[in-house]
Amino acid sequence: MKRRKQASVDRSTPPPPGVPGKVGFPRYSEKKLRNGFKIFVIENHSLPIVTIGFVVRGGSMYDGDRPGLASITSELLTKGTKTRSATEIAEQIDFVGGSLASSASWDACQVFVSVLKEYVTVGFDLLEDVVLNPTFPEEEIERVRTQRLASIQQLKADSGYLADTKFAEVLFKMHPYGKPPGGTEKSVKELKRSDFRLFHDNLFTPLNSFIVFAGDILPKEAEQFSAGVFGKWKRKSKPAAVKSPGASEPRKGIVIIEKPDAVQSALRIGHVGIARRNPDYLKVFVMNTLLGGYFSSRINMNLREVHGYTYGGRSSFDARTLPGVFEVSADVRNEVTLETIDEIFAELNRIVRALPTKSELEMVKNYLVGLFPIQLETPQQVASRIIVIELFHLPKNYYRDYRSNIRRVTAAGIRAAAAEYIHPENCAIVLSGNSAEIKNKLKKFGQIQIFDRDGNKLNDK
């Protein structure tokens, strides 16, 4: 019996991507109570689990001159209420096999509870109690303070943390964005119970908050839960808006945070970026993905694959309520620090001045379009997208049209976005490393300022 000759396969090039399947953003319900409080519900009855997220607009951006305020306030929400101690809260959520967690980002304070459907009443009762009735017990404040101070000390041994902290300070100066959201040793030591209470009273209001239910629950059930508690919440005015940080100034020299034992430089290059509501955000997002937002990006291929300077280089636009950070970051060997900086600026200038190729743009768009369905596999993931829509006041159809809008981005649009929002001449250069090994090579960038890990200036070069 003759064997059929198999056709040869060319494995030197990857097969072309298939046609993306249709993926619609799930429908969800929305209801607004008389006091302005909003309720969102994403139904998914595949599993008997309900996740509830309570969101307050405005997190660490409201810290003012007390960095760490939003972060510690949020952590303390679950550490004691008018009727429950921290231990009782932990025991009650553990007893039903659920989870309860609170946190703060730059833009929001959030409390999430997740429980089996049969225990949704228990979960909701705990959530509304910690949100509306926290007492900020002194013993819990001191415990969190001790832990936070120890954490800050540990982080000061990390080159990445030192570079990130100084980079933010250089870009934003006295604005809240210029200070670590987790706090400084000075601010954490000085924060008082009255600070946490005032922060809670000012931001936790019906007009400034909303709730999202996701999972095995009907809109009618969610509305009954919420209206019975949050519908009685006294209406207050919204907190005053935080002032925008403003644009970056032209670059002036280079900043080094001294870490004498470092064999690598933790490098940060960039400037003030864009706000999340910027109408060009999607173009900027695609452009940055091509530049340094995924493994096959220009920056990573250049620094890692072509030159072998680092295990990975990346860029990002951290778009917040107010203009956040545009940043290129990499950890590189001391001896190639200068060469790495030069290559990064070469890539920044290239994307500003020239059109991307058709093949690399298609690869980026295919990547983003293909990734999107994976980010909608669970009700919790869908809930996170709804939170983004509501938090940043995006159009209701934003994610429904997301993939088609990605597809519409053109090479000309990429170059226009780069020219508008990337400014190599304004990029600050900050790194944490061994100044003795790298400073002489970096003099071409101008004045070199060197600081210790506590922010004290060592000298000017």
General description of the model:
The protein is α+β, with helices and mostly antiparallel strands. The chain is built from 16 helices and 13 strands. The strands form two sheets. The chain has a seven-stranded mixed beta sheet with strand order 9-10-8-11-7-12-13, sandwiched between helices. A six-stranded mixed beta sheet has the order 1-2-6-3-5-4, sandwiched between helices. Helix 10 runs antiparallel to helix 11 (337-353) and helix 12 packs antiparallel against helix 14 (402-408).
Number of helices: 16
Termini, distance in Å?
Answer: 82 Å
Rg, alpha carbons: 25 Å
| Percentage of β-strand residues | 15-25%
Q: Provide the residue-averaged pLDDT.
A: 93
Helices and strands, in order, run as: EEEHHEEHHHHHEHEEHHEEHHHHHEHEE
Apparent shape: globular
The total strand number stands at 13
SSE layout and pairings?
Blueprint: E1 29-32, E2 38-43, E3 49-57, H1 69-76, H2 86-95, E4 99-104, E5 108-116, H3 120-132, H4 138-155, H5 159-172, H6 185-190, H7 193-203, E6 209-215, H8 219-229, E7 254-258, E8 264-272, H9 281-293, H10 298-306, E9 313-318, E10 325-333, H11 337-353, H12 358-371, H13 379-391, H14 402-408, H15 411-421, E11 428-433, H16 435-438, E12 448-451, E13 457-460
Parallel strand pairs: 2-6, 7-11, 7-12
Antiparallel strand pairs: 1-2, 3-5, 3-6, 4-5, 8-10, 8-11, 9-10, 12-13
